[in-house]
Input
Amino acid sequence: MGGSRINFNFMNKKLLIYSFVCAFLILFYLCVPSQVNLIKKREKDPLYQLNMGLLFLNEGKIDLAIIHLQKCAQLDPKNYKTYNALGLSYTIKREWDKAISYFEKSLGINPEFTEVHNNLGIIYQEKGDFERAKKEFEKVISDQNYQQKEISYYNLARLYYIQKNYEESFKMINLAIEKRNHYSIAHNLRGILLQEKGKLKEAEHSFRKALEFTPDDVVINENLIRILIRLDKKEEALMILNKILPLAQDQETRERLKNILEQNK
Output
C-alpha cells in the first residue's frame, strides 16, 4: 500500500502548471487577432499618428516624428496642426524652405492659427530676413485672442538685439516679462541688455531672477559668473562655476568654462 501512495501535492502542481499553460495559450490566440486589429486601426487613425508624431518631436526623434506626421497628413489633409508640427520638425532640421511651405499650408487651412506666425518669424530671423521676421511677430502681438504674446515680445527683443537696437530690445523684453514674470530666457536677455548699458548690478539681479526658474541652465549661470567676476565677487563666481561645469553638455562650453576658471584662480 505504501508503494502505491500517490503524491497529490506533486500532481496538483503539475495540474496547476498545465492549466496555466493552457490558459496562456488561449489568451495568446485570443489576443493576437485583437493586437493585429489594433495595429491596423492605429495605422488608419490620424489622431493616433498625430499624437505619435508630437511625442517623437518632443523627444527630439525628428525623423520618426516626420514619418507619423506625414501619415497623419495623408489620412487627414485638412488638419492644420499636423502641418505646423511638420514645419517645426523641418525647422529643427534647419531645412527652412520645407518648414516654410508646411507653415504656409497650415495657415492656408486655418488663417487664424496665430502660433504659426511665431514659427515663421523665427525662420525668417534665422535666414537674416529681419523685416519679414518682424512682420510675423507683430501679427502675433496684434491678435487680441492670442494668449502667449510674451513669446513674440521675446522674439522681437531678440531680433532688435541682433540688430544692436538695444533700446527697442529693452522695451520688448520688459513687455515679455510683464506678460510672464517666470519667463527665464526673457530675464536672461534683460540681463544681457543691462550689461550692454553698463548696469552690472541690475544685470546680476536679472540673471539671478532667471535662475530662480531654471537653476541648472548652464548659459545663464555662465552669464551670472561673468558679471560676478566683474563685480569682484570671484569666490561666489568660482563656486557656481564648479557646480555647473559637470552640467555642460558640449565641448565648446566646457572649454569656455575651464578658461574662465583658469583665468580667475
